[in-house]
Write a structure and sequence with these properties.
The protein has about 400 residues and is of the alpha/beta class. It is about 65% helix and about 10% strand. It has two domains: about 15-200, no CATH class; about 200-385, Up-down Bundle (Multidrug efflux transporter AcrB transmembrane fold), CATH 1.20.1640.10. α5 (about 120-130) crosses α6.
Length: about 400
């Protein structure tokens, strides 16, 4: 815990796009892409004044498919970026510009059917006007058909421009021939398609950070109140301190490893809070039962026996859950890696904190109470003796 605290103080957290702001894009390629070239191309993106706009050390590129042709690209917030119409911000424009450098150089200057939307394709067709009628609605329907074919029939990637169907109402055979010729001369089917894009501004990211902290603290306070009502207040304090310890160690390890903290990691932290609390409540419930049955026994002996009686249950439940989480960590892919790692750390740490932290806190308080009562009785006897 101390090492984690030092790491947090010196290095801080590697906050994801959800909290730090930025752009996260899912990109599909025709073939397995060269990751080093993509990272280099992103680092070469510059603004109008020629300054680098992306810090490559903060860019994360993750493979999210077994075939290796689908990537998750995360960019930090680009300073001075302004969101344009259609939700395309500077981050997405930078990704498209960088990936375009991987396309066939001979196709430079042509409109990419795989990376452009309906509006761009329609506007380019209107500009070319291969049919010679300036019919904007017709060109709009053609653009709709091309994008529909790309996204629904080709999973986001057109292999060749010649594959594009031109079965659009209002087109004759001669029109299709002219249009086909214009497409092949002025359009290209690039090597990539940018699918869904998530954009988080710095203000939204800061707000999400605050909400994540508030939600975690609210969960701890709620559990403290419940356990204090269900048992005694010191039980609640012990349980909350143990769970807080679990969360702090997990966050400390994330800081040491510089693993990204995203909303899924926060969800994992809340999950392990509930899981660890459940273990603690089971032990406390057995302690309470044994205290009623064995009033004359020493408190430490009762607590130790209660832990031993619930130990097999703890090992079975934690062990089976751990196997599932390990499988999720190994085979769940990069997207679920942080979630699974947080649970993996939390289950291991939580299993011993319920035994080694929550229960000793309760014992310490009970012993302190006994000492106070004994001191009061001794003082009362001494005052009576003086009076006699």
């Amino acid at each position: 815990m101390i090492a984690g605290g030092i790491s947090v103080w010196l290095r801080g957290f590697n906050l994801g796009v959800d909290f730090a702001g930025g752009t996260m894009a899912y990109v599909r390629f025709k073939q397995v892409p060269p990751l080093d070239q993509i990272r280099k191309a992103l680092g070469e993106q510059k603004d109008a004044s020629g300054k680098q706009i992306i810090e490559t050390e903060k860019v994360t590129i993750q493979t999210i498919s077994g075939t290796g042709n689908q990537l998750l690209i995360r960019l930090p917030q680009i300073r001075g970026s302004e969101t344009q119409e259609g939700g395309i911000d500077a981050g997405k424009r930078a990704i498209i510009a960088a990936l375009t450098t991987l396309n066939d150089p001979s196709q430079t200057g042509k409109t990419d059917l795989n990376s452009r939307g309906v509006a761009d394709i329609r506007d380019r067709l209107i500009q070319l006007d291969p049919l010679g009628n300036r019919d904007e609605s017709l060109y709009g329907r053609i653009a709709d058909r091309i994008v529909d074919y790309r996204d629904k029939e080709r999973s986001g990637l057109i292999d060749k421009v010649s594959d594009v169907p031109l079965d659009v109402q209002g087109l004759g055979d001669s029109d299709r021939q002219k249009l086909r010729q214009a497409l092949e001369q002025n359009f290209t089917a690039g090597n990539f398609n940018v699918g869904s894009v998530e954009i988080v501004g710095p203000q939204v990211g800061s707000e999400l950070q605050k909400r994540a902290i508030y939600v975690t603290l609210a969960a701890l306070v709620g559990m403290l109140i419940y356990i204090a009502f269900r048992f005694e207040w010191i039980y609640g304090v012990g349980a909350v301190i143990a769970v807080f310890h679990d969360v702090m160690i997990t966050l400390g390890i994330f800081s040491m490893l510089q693993k990204e903290i995203s909303l899924t990691v926060i969800a994992a932290l809340l999950t392990l809070v509930g899981y660890s609390m459940n273990d603690t409540i089971v032990i406390f419930d057995r302690i309470r039962e044994n205290l009623k049955l064995r009033r004359r026994d020493d408190l430490i002996v009762i607590v130790n026996d209660s832990i031993n009686q619930t130990l097999s249950r703890t090992i079975l439940t934690s062990g089976l859950t751990l196997l599932s989480v390990i499988s999720l960590y190994l085979f769940g892919g990069e997207v679920l890696n942080g979630f699974a790692l947080a649970l993996l750390i939390g289950i291991i740490i939580g299993s011993y904190s319920s035994i080694g932290i929550a229960s000793p806190i309760m014992i310490w308080w009970k012993r302190y109470q006994e000492q106070q009562i004994a001191a009061q009785r001794a003082a009362a006897r001494a005052s009576k003796a003086k009076a006699v």
